[in-house]
Design a protein that fits this description.
Number of helices: 5
Structural class: mainly alpha
Largest sheet: none
Number of domains: 1
Radius of gyration: 19 Å
Helix content: over 70%
């Protein structure tokens, strides 16, 4: 039972952290020039360095991101409005479960749309920009990320098992 609790808690925490990240990204990009890289997530810069992209490849990625920005920006604005509504709905200790549930459902739908768009952009970059060698390196980086997640999940499971009462 406690293991399920920790799994759910970790999932909720991941969603909250992801939401905060997206909101900060949206706020940074709202102030950024339309053609600038400012506000791009640090992970993109890390991947660019790790994959040793050429200037031409960076320009291609910039164009892909720019082409997709028009669909992502409204979603990020809606996500920010949802966050504001949630803060207003819970201000001064208020708790209207139906309203909070509706806002949470809306937030989940917005996050889902943003995740799908992000994956579509990553797919475009992977298939249209990267060389076969860079794809191999990107695949290795992905495998490493999955291994880190698996390791964290094992630690969380062990932590949850340590808290469960002995029978």
């Amino acid at each position: 039972m406690k293991t399920k609790f920790w799994m759910v808690a970790a999932g909720v925490l991941a969603l909250v952290v992801g939401g905060v990240t997206l909101l900060s990204y949206a706020q940074e990009n709202a102030a950024a020039p339309a053609d600038g890289w400012r506000g791009m997530h640090r992970r993109m810069g890390y991947l660019m360095r790790e994959l040793n992209l050429t200037d031409a490849q960076k320009a291609q990625i910039k164009e892909i991101v720019k082409a997709n920005k028009q669909t992502g920006l409204p979603l990020m604005q809606q996500l920010a409005a949802n966050k504001k509504a949630m803060l207003e709905a819970t201000s001064n200790g208020n708790y209207d479960q139906a309203k909070i549930q509706a806002l949470a459902t809306q937030r989940g739908q917005l996050m889902s749309q943003l995740i799908v768009q992000k994956q579509a952009i990553q797919h475009q970059i992977y298939t249209q920009v990267l060389t076969p060698e860079q794809r191999t390196k990107a695949d290795q980086l992905r495998t490493n990320a999955i291994a880190r997640i698996d390791s964290r999940m094992r630690k969380l499971s062990q932590y949850g098992a340590a808290d469960s009462p002995q029978q």
